[in-house]
């Protein structure tokens, strides 16, 4: 398996294919919520195995250094094997290398405990997307 982080058009297209399957097809979230226009200006982590797409996640860092991790998605056959944790850790390290101090995430409510294992702190409940309650969490990178 190979993990790459970048934002070239081919990588973005592959990330969007994974997200479409997980969010739109499986979870019934309208595609308009996934395609928010931030892909071209974000860092994308992608895990592949030869030609097989496996997982993706996105980190957006704005001009002020504020960052948001989003779109963490693993295709069904690969779930439960630690791949999501691998991709989250990779983006946490990537953020640190780029001078980020705080990462925000809006995660499904049922993933609260999962993200707390990485050091994310629960902030509040936020919007409902599709039928999924999202929560805001933050991760503080120590210098």
From TrEMBL:
Record-linked SUPFAM superfamilies: Acyl-CoA N-acyltransferases (Nat)
InterPro entries: Acyl_CoA_acyltransferase, GNAT_dom, GNPNAT1-like
UniProt xrefs under Pfam families: Acetyltransf_10
Domain N-acetyltransferase: 2-142
Domain of life: Bacteria
One GO MF term attached to the UniProt entry: glucosamine 6-phosphate N-acetyltransferase activity
PANTHER family attached to this UniProt entry: GLUCOSAMINE 6-PHOSPHATE N-ACETYLTRANSFERASE
Protein name in UniProt: Acetyltransferase
Organism of this sequence: Vibrio coralliirubri
């Amino acid at each position: 398996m190979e993990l790459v982080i970048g934002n070239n058009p081919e990588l973005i297209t592959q990330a969007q294919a994974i997200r479409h399957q997980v969010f739109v097809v499986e979870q019934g979230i309208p595609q308009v919520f996934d395609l928010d226009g931030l892909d071209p200006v974000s860092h994308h982590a992608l895990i592949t195995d030869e030609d097989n797409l496996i997982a993706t996640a996105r980190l957006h860092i704005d001009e002020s250094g504020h960052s948001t991790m989003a779109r963490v998605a693993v295709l069904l056959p690969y779930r439960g094997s630690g791949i999501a944790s691998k991709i989250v850790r990779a983006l946490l390290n990537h953020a640190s290398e780029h001078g980020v101090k705080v990462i925000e995430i809006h995660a499904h409510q049922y993933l609260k405990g999962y993200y707390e294992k990485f050091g994310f702190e629960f902030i509040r409940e936020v919007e409902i997307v599709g039928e999924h309650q999202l929560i805001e969490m933050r991760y503080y990178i120590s210098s």
